[in-house]
Amino acid sequence: CFLFYFQASPQRSRSPSPAGQDVLTLRALVSTKDAGVIIGKAGKNVADLRDQTGVKAGVSKVIPGVHERVLTISGSVESVAKAYALIISQLVESNPNTPPIPSSATAHTSIRLLISHNLMGTIIGRNGLKIKAIQDASGARMVASKDMLPQSTERVVDVQGSPEAIGRAIEEIGRCLLEDWERGLGTVLYHPGVGDERAGGRRAAHNSASSFSSRRSNGDSVIREPSPPPYNSTQLRTQNISIPSDMVGCIIGRGGTKITEIRRLSGSKISIAKAPHDDTGERMFTIVGTPEANEKALFLLYNQLESEKERRVGKEQQHQEEELQD
């Protein structure tokens, strides 16, 4: 399976730039075995990929006890889409379960793309029109998950089809994301293996998010220097996140106690829209603070969401057990 996230290049206006001017970074979650195929002997395959497409590509180190590694590819939308199509074809052909003379053009496979929760609306579109258009244009099938992945603010879109169809879908998705890049600011990335143990997982997720913010906290390639005063105006960032309306109450808490605590612990200012901002019924939370403070606020907000989801699942299970006993 593959996972995906997007990174906007620094200094971008809301409108899209000319083709090839935007930098897209796509990550994929691959098995250790597939990572070996992608890298090749002495790194030959990944080097060839860079030469053929002009992308930057690499695979993360092995994590003990985790049987997956992260593939990262950066470049223009077109070159990244081409690189993924080539990689998927390569993996299909290396699979021993395929016919002796596999045809990657007709082979059917799938990719799990990792999309920021705030950007899902951009991919799906009003009444699902955008995702349908991407499917029609690419020939791939797309299925979006409803829930965010553990310790992150990302959701999965499963893309199914031939390597070429998937490549076309990635190109279309990439263009959508770059056009609406600001919605993805502050995304907390999913890290495989993080969150298997609740307390340790949360600490690890927070540490990962903190180190990531120095590269891409707000899409503007912030480079941390010796810390100025916490609210130096040059360090302030504004981030917006959407929260399902039925979850807003659990974040605010009785008498506003929980949101007050999150503000105090993070050091960020957090304001909440009084009404939903679109047809999804979600309400906008606006976070203002330093990159570090905002990162902590996001972490606390989504931990609160995760806890509430677990509480509701437990309550539902208890209710079902009581009904069975009756």
TrEMBL record:
Segments of this protein annotated with the region Disordered: 195-237
Q: Which residues form a coiled coil?
A: none
Q: Where is the composition biased (Low complexity)?
A: 206-216
**Pfam families membership:** KH_1 (PF00013)
Alphabetized UniProt keyword annotations: Repeat, RNA-binding
**SMART domains xref list:** KH
Q: Where is the K Homology domain?
A: 22-92, 107-178, 235-306
Q: Which GO terms describe its molecular function?
A: RNA binding
Q: Which InterPro entries match?
A: KH_dom, KH_dom_type_1, KH_dom_type_1_sf, Rnc1_KH-I_3
- Asked whether the keyword Repeat is assigned, the reply is yes
Q: Which domain of life is it from?
A: Eukaryota
What protein name is recorded for this chain? Answer: K Homology domain-containing protein
Q: Which organism is it from?
A: Dentipellis fragilis
